[in-house]
Amino acid sequence: MLDIIFYAFKTDLPPHYVEMSEDVYEWLAKSEFSKIGKSVTRNVSIDGEEENLPLVELDRDIRQQLRNFFRDAIICESDAVLTQLEDAASKEDYRSVTYRLRKLLDLLKCVENEKYQYLQRLL
User: Fold this and answer.
1) pTM for this structure?
2) What is the DSSP string of 13-81?
3) What pLDDT tens digit does each residue of the chain (123 aa) get?
């Protein structure tokens, strides 16, 4: 599993890890998602320890671009999921078919939460 991590350094909110399969991560890496914002190495304190992390600042423009990207991706994925669900016979089939959609929704919720100021993606 690979992660995209959202940070809220100015609040008590802990980092939010969005774990995903290599397939979904690779799809994101090849999509417009990887071109939105620029990772800048920042010195941050995590659990009392100083670390240098490549982070994308979620300013208003970047946040809006990410919102638009995830909303468009969710619409496309929803169409594919609805088509595939017609053939899903079991709970395992359902989970498999909806996996990417659930990850996209989780990412969108984090982007929309303005308490998160940064995201870390290692694409």
Assistant:
1) 0.85
2) PPPEEEEE-HHHHHHHHHSGGGGSS--EEEEEEETTEEEEEEEEE--HHHHHHHHHHHHHHHHHHHHHH
3) 689 999 998 778 899 999 999 999 999 999 999 999 999 999 888 778 888 999 999 999 999 999 999 999 999 999 888 888 877 778 888 888 899 999 999 999 999 999 999 999 875
